[in-house]
Amino acid sequence: MSWNVRVDGSMCIGSGMCVGAAPGHFAFDDDTGLSEAVAESVEPDDAVLDAAESCPVEAIMVLDRAGAVLAPKD
Ligand code: SF4
After folding, report:
1. Domain CATH code at residue 49
2. Which residues contact ligand 1 via a Cβ below 6 A?
3. What does the pLDDT read at residue 73?
4. What is the CA(50)–ligand 1 centre distance, in A?
5. What is the arithmetic mean of pLDDT over 16-44?
6. Domain span at residue 52?
7. pLDDT digits (tens, 9 = 90+) for 23-36
């Protein structure tokens, strides 16, 4: 049951919280300096949820296969 990870590049401010929380899942784009998901489809990993929760602008969204939002939670 894989998850879908999305980073909204129009919201990202390049804080690096996600790269620190889940370095295997997020990386900086060399050109823009903003974060992007290494892969949109990932196996369940709490580090991805932590990254989404730690993003200061909530630019990261993690969904399950049914489309339910797993993180960030309100
Ligand atoms: S934590 Fe959010 S604002 Fe910071 S680099 Fe990641 S996506 Fe961008």
Report:
1. 3.30.70.20
2. 7, 12-18, 26, 35, 55-57, 59-60
3. 93
4. 12
5. 97
6. 3-71
7. 999 999 999 999 99
